[in-house]
Each structure stands twice: as structure tokens, then as C-alpha cells.
């Protein structure tokens, strides 16, 4: 059994950002991660993935990612960056430790893990959403004899030659995967609405700035309307696909048959593979015993602090845990504030005990 002031669950970019600020405190802490190496979700992203923010804008606190303001890093560059970050700051990450369940026992948390019991006064959940892919519920999906994939399972275009492939989803994943698969076979792009592409000169740093302005305006109670721009960033592969004119989209179909997808008006397309690029929900199954996960898969928080369970914080899951907190550059701000809150919380607790 090991005992700490703070245990961070998850050693991806959010867990490491927490480590950066925790190491400046006097608190004892550890980061538990179920992977074999640093990199978090990036370890499982497809080979050709390009970040939507340039390197300079894809950095955790303290260490700029090299590459400057015109280079969109690859998945492997992001993984190498996280590895070096962990080493540079000598962060205490324990691998491979899977946290199965978190229990509250009096004033402590008991974490049941693949390496036995860990105990702490505070838990920070930073498990991301990669382990909880979301696939919408289409009628007949269970009788479809072709292959259903989620973007989290997509690796490269290798297996798609001469297959009829439908790609569902209008975000960056959908656009980047479509751009790649359309080079080797015919594709059909199914989107809920007409996809919107950002102007070529606008990238993730702009989105982060807009999120920051919205955050500042809300804090001051001032109105701020974020710019109404689309959300697909024009990385090179997407520009290339645009030149090949493959970005024609069609609204969602109604149901699956054994070998097709069928629209409400009866139109039918024979399909071999459907790739759902439809996002993720927070991966919070390890917190189920605390009874604080809502039906939408999120938790009630004030900033990153759980409003249901004292001593629990959630970091990096998206705007509901802090603006742009699911990005490399945005999570630093959430992590800093979270550590400040934890230090105050534990100081008050210690005072009231003495
Ligand atoms: P993760 O990276 O998922 O890390 C969580 C870690 O916790 C993982 O190692 C996981 O295995 C571990 N874990 C989970 N459950 C447990 C458990 N029970 N016990 C122990 N360990 C556990 N982000 C950017 O910042 N910039 C970009 O430009 C960018 N571009 C993107 C482009 C595309 C096309 C896509 C799809 C995503 C992009 N992202 C980008 C988003 C980014 O990949 C994620 O938001 C990010 O990985 C989330 O980090 P995290 O640390 O919160 O979670």
C-alpha cells in the first residue's frame, strides 16, 4: 500500500501538466498511468495525424515544443515531446498502473489498482476520453456485415484499397482521415451539417485565443460572441484533399442493412467499411463508485473541482473543466489553478485537524 497527499490518475498531457505544478508544491504526489510509456492518447492516434495547432502553440508549461509557428507537429513529435517533458521535470509517473475503482473511505481516497491499493487525501482524474469512443446509435448497425471502425481504431489507409468506405463526422478527425483514405479508394462523407473549413491562415492558436477571450469576458460578466468560423484546420493533407475535390458531404443516413446504408428517402449505398469520427465521451468509469458521473458522462464541477465529492478534481476533459483544457496549450492554465486550489484545500484541512 502506498500513501500520498495527491494522486493523479492518467499520465497523458493533462497528468504531466498537473505534475509540473505539483512538483513546485510541498505535497507528496504520484501519477498513475496504464500505458507502457509516455504519450497518453497520442500513442494510439493514427500515423499521419497532424496537430491542429503549430508547435509553438502546442506546449505544456515550461517547455516549448520545437518547430516554430508554421509547423504542425505529427503524432510522433507529440509523443516525443511528452516523453522529454516527463524526463526533464523528473515527474513521478508509475506505469503500468490501471486504476479500476476509487472509493471514499472517511476522509481518504482508496484507489484499487492493478498494482494494489493506493491511498491519498486528494484525487485528480486526468484520464482523457480516448478510452471511451462515442458511436451514434444507428438502426440496424448490429446486422451490418461490413466493418465498423471508430477513429480511435484507425491507423493508416493500408487496409482500405478497393473498399467502399463511408466516413461519418465533420470534425478534424473526419476531415484528416477522409483526406487520407480518399487517396486509395472511393469515399462517402456523412456529416450532420455542411462541414466548415477554417480559412487557410487560421489554426488552433486562433481557436485558443478565442476561447481565452470568451473566458476573460465571462469572468468579467461581459458579453463576447466567439467568431463564427468553421472548425476544420487546413493542414497540408486537408488542403491536398480539397484540391482533389473529395470534400463533398451528405447528411446522415437512416439505417444499416447487411451490406448498405440507407437514407430516409430510400436512397441506398453499398458499403464495406464505416469509420465513425464522432468523438469521445469522458473516460470516467474508474469513478463510478463515487456516484458523481452524470447521464451525459460528465461530472458537476466548479472549474475543475467536483461539486459532489470533496477532495476530487477533474482535469483536461474539455471546456466543461476549463476553456481549451483538452489541448496541450490550454491544460496548463487548468492545471495551475487546480494545484493552487488543492494546496489551499489541504492547508485548511490540516489546520482543522490540528
Ligand atoms: P490522454 O492523452 O487520453 O491521457 C490520459 C492517460 O490516462 C492515458 O495515458 C490513458 O491511458 C490513462 N488512463 C485512462 N484511464 C486510466 C485508468 N483508469 N487508470 C490509469 N490510467 C488511465 N490536442 C492539442 O492539444 N493540440 C492539437 O493540435 C490537437 N490536435 C488533434 C487533432 C486530432 C485530429 C485529434 C483527434 C485530437 C487532437 N488533439 C489535439 C486532442 C488530444 O489528442 C487530446 O485532447 C489529448 O490527448 C487529451 O490529453 P489528456 O492527457 O487529457 O488525455
Tell the overall outline. globular
Helix content: 10-25%
The largest β sheet comes out as: 7 strands, mixed
Give the H and E element order: EHEHEEEEEEHEHHEEEEEEEEH
Alpha carbon gyration radius = 22 Å
Which class best fits the helix and strand makeup?
A: alpha/beta
Beta strand count: 17
Describe this structure in words.
This protein has 354 residues and is α/β, with parallel strands linked by helices. Helix content is 24%, strand content 20%. The strands form 4 sheets. Strands 1, 2, 3, 4, 5, 6 and 17 form a 7-stranded mixed sheet that branches. It has a 5-stranded parallel sheet with strand order 7-14-8-9-10, covered by helices on one side. β2, α2 and β3 (93-94) form a beta-alpha-beta unit. α1 packs across α6 and α3 crosses α5. The chain is globular, with a radius of gyration of 22 Å. The two termini are 25 Å apart. The mean pLDDT is 91. Flavin-adenine dinucleotide binds next to α1 and α3.
List the helices and strands and how they pair.
Blueprint: E1 2-9, H1 13-22, E2 29-32, H2 75-88, E3 93-94, E4 99-105, E5 108-113, E6 116-125, E7 147-150, E8 165-168, H3 172-181, E9 187-190, H4 204-219, H5 236-243, E10 249-250, E11 255-256, E12 260-262, E13 268-270, E14 273-276, E15 301-302, E16 305-306, E17 312-314, H6 328-353
Parallel strand pairs: 1-2, 1-6, 2-3, 6-17, 7-14, 8-9, 8-14, 9-10
Antiparallel strand pairs: 4-5, 5-6, 11-12, 12-13, 15-16
Bound molecules: flavin-adenine dinucleotide.
The site of flavin-adenine dinucleotide has 36 residues, from helix 1 and helix 3.
